[in-house]
Amino acid sequence: MSRKSKNRFKGSKVFITSALIASALFCPFFQSEGQAQEPDSRKPKAVKRKNVKTFDTLSRQPINGDTILAIVNDTDNMIAWRKFAENLLKKDKNSPEGNAVIGMVYYCAEGDLPRARHHLEKATKEALKRARRGDSRMGSLYLGSQLELLHILGEMDDYAEKIKQVDNFTKYAGDFLEVEKAWPLMKLGREDEARKVIDKAAKSGNFEIRCAALNTLGALECDLGHYQSAYNTYDSLISEVIAHHVDPEPTFWRNLGEEALCLGRYDEAEKCFIDAAHATFSDIIYSNPYSDLAGLYIEEARFTDAASTLKKTLEWSRSLRPFLYQQHMAEDTQLTAVLMLELGYIPEAVKKQKSLIGRPDRQGGSSIAKDQAESGNLLTWYAILHAQRENMREELSWSQSWTRKLKIRMNLAFINYTMWRTAGRIRALLAENERIVPSFRPFNPKGIQVSENYRHFMVDILGPGTCAAALDELNKRAIENYPVEEPYIILHKAEIAYAMGNKKAAYKNFLKAKETLPKAAALVKAQAEVRSAQLAKKYGGDNGTGLLNSYAAVLKSTPMVFRHTETSIPVKITSSAPAISKKFENMIDDSPRFDCKSSGEPAFDLRLSMTNNKLTASLSNAGTVISTSQVNLSEDTDQTLANLVKEVHNQTFSTKISLNSLGLDSLDGSNLSGSTARDQFDEMLDTKTAATSPVYSSSKQRFESRRAALPVIPSAAKNLNCSAPSPRLKMINMLGKRKDCRFIEAVEPLFTYT
Fold first, then answer.
1. How far is CA 312 from CA 278, 294, 685, 687, in A?
2. Residue 247 pLDDT more than 60?
């Protein structure tokens, strides 16, 4: 999947504050008739962390645009700011200062975007009125409030209103924020207009405006399917940033990694995501590079790496501001559910994914649409329900009481109904938003956003006929990235042929997909491996040995594939305890995961033995042990056998990962049958306490090697003794339209933070 992140344009406090103050000072709109506005010579001061303010301190502080921007970083004093705003609103409910401050508190401290929007809209409206009546402080307050309102509108996916407000802002403050229109124009599908805005902004002499423009240009090129062009854009952006001796934002590295992924460069994508994670951390950023890294590791079946990376994902997200943490909650939960599912923790995955159904993330900070995220959530939910259904069908084989079996069958009926409803909602979303055809392309920015491993469920949801028509339509289109996508499309063709009953054609396509899919696509490659092995005996001349070897390889790395594809493995049961072997064989044969074979047919060896008051079942292939399950003997033989059969399923179809490497206890690196390992693993991935903002070092050898190969861009403002490019000088040139030294000397104190 391809999900580009937007860099927050408010990253440079110096630049934005400079723009606001210069706009308020020199824009004629904010001067009353016959009255010149007095320049504010107060030197802005950065709000220091742990600088606790009292109500008396705040009551003496003038509230202007600089104050509004400073509240974003004043996380230690949100309670004091709230009390201050409430006091102002008690005296005057229309107070622009009170509404602006309470709006910022709702925004920054609580992430309550609707209330923040309401109060900031009220603040801008009232500030505008008072500015027109001659209040000299209201111009700056208007601009500061309006700027924050723009971010809120974007984060609420109200793109049309954001464009309108940017135009309104431009009338009074100049066009330095016009680049903010490009992202919502792209999200609304108005690509030509977005490109015009980007082209204009890219020619700007201001470094930050150009960075924002190039970042949006990369997302636009990707949205149009021009992955190589998007990759080149992000690569140029990072090179330009490094040439200015600035550490690239995590967003830039992350977006470059996404493009590398679209081009099939998995190793490079991993490096880019790692670079993003090691870039300078900011708690006001849309990107979470660890989530991309964890998702990549899951696709590659590197589950131990994925588990440890997912822990860092959650720490990163919980270190963000509340209004940005909301942008990641559903994505992080879904990622956790997917990992738990692939590790065999099906009930835990159900619990996780169920919590976010009907609550997709806002997508103001990414290049995809809300319906793509929602359909991705639902398709993941469908896959998890499917696994739960298979797990319950397995449980029927070892359940002893008729009441338990009745309950399971009732639950199965409810799951089938839930899957039917979920499929209906997915069909509606895909059809209404014209997502069916692009959803069969991996990494496509216009398709459903879901793990590649679950995309094959679209054949069940849409029906093989609809899917075949979609692939026919796809084949008519000229696809720039087709060589990278072709193996995945071949796999879809195989699944469609399999569902239609054309097993011979399905076998050929499964075999071709298995041979051509990249090694990094381990989960879908395992799917093709299992399907092709199933059909090899009839259509490939296999005597059964190849099937066993293929199944054994998949059981070792990605055993959940057998549940996803509803596949059973052939077993031949041998026993040193003949008194109970028949009951054991009957239970195993009742399971949809095992198919008991008679002697002479190729099958896995499932050996039952009884030693030292323990009952053990060992599954092996040609002498190589695949899984070992063991339970304590009890007086109730039937219950003992039931416990053993349950354990056989847990150990055979759950991924073996080394929990020791994650700092957890385990038995020989395998999954525990009891609740201890599950509780520890769930706790690791669901840490409630937010970590302190992680400190990540500024970039390493990759950063230095790229910088050494680039020419150094000379400073554009050496006379002002500031790093290139100078936001102060650029703002003076753009808004003041004057370059004389006297003007610079007068304005210089307003553009410096201490």
1. 12, 9, 9, 11
2. yes
DSSP state of 9: G
Q: Which residue has the tokens 């990107």?
A: 287
661 pLDDT higher than 80: no
What is the pLDDT, as a whole number, of residue 59? 55
Distance, C-alpha 256 to centroid of its chain? 15
Taking a C-beta distance cutoff of 8 angstroms, is the pair 628, 616 a contact? yes
Q: How far apart are CA 330 and CA 327, in angstroms?
A: 8
Helix (H) / strand (E) containing 631: strand 624-632
Instruction: Evaluate whether 593 touches 569 at the Cβ level (below 8 Å).
Output: yes
- 733 pLDDT band, cuts 50/70/90, is very low
CA distance 510 to 176: 54
Residue 97's alpha-carbon distances to 41, 124, 127, 174, 742, in angstroms, are: 20, 10, 8, 23, 33
* Burial class of residue 110, CB neighbours in 10 A (0-12, 13-18, 19+): middle
DSSP 8-class letter at 667: B
Q: Phi/psi of residue 497, each to 5°?
A: -65, -40
How far is it, in rounded angstroms, from Cα 479 to Cα 489? 12
**Strands laid side by side in the 569-575 sheet:** 594-596, 569-575, 604-611, 614-621, 624-632
Tell me the C-alpha distance between 589 and 570, whole Å.
Answer: 10
At residue 588, does pLDDT exceed 60?
A: yes
Strand partners, 571: 596, 604
Token readout for 632 is 């304590």
**pLDDT of 402 strictly over 50:** yes
Asked if residue 621 lies in contact with residue 552, where contact means CB atoms within 8 angstroms, the answer is: yes
What pLDDT is stored for residue 109 in this prediction? 82
HEC secondary structure over 180-208: HHHHHHHHCCCHHHHHHHHHHHHCCCCHH
Binning the chain into helix, strand and coil, the percentages to the nearest 5 are 65, 5, 30
CA 477-480-486 angle, 5° bins: 80
pLDDT tens profile 460-500: 999 999 999 999 988 887 777 778 889 999 999 999 999 99
Exposed, middle or buried by CB within 10 Å (0-12, 13-18, 19+), for 59? exposed
3-state secondary structure of 607: strand
Question: How confident is the model over 254-296, as pLDDT tens digits?
Answer: 999 999 998 989 999 999 999 888 888 877 787 888 989 999 9
CA end-to-end span of the chain, whole Å?
A: 43
CA-CA distance, 436 to 449, in Å (whole number)?
12
Taking Cα atoms as reference points, which of 373, 290, 376, 368 lies closest to residue 338?
Answer: 376
The number of C-alpha atoms within 13 Å of 96 and in the hemisphere containing its C-beta is: 26
The structure tokens listed for 708 are 């050494």
CB of 348 within 8 A of CB of 678? yes
3-state secondary structure of 7: coil
pTM here?
0.80
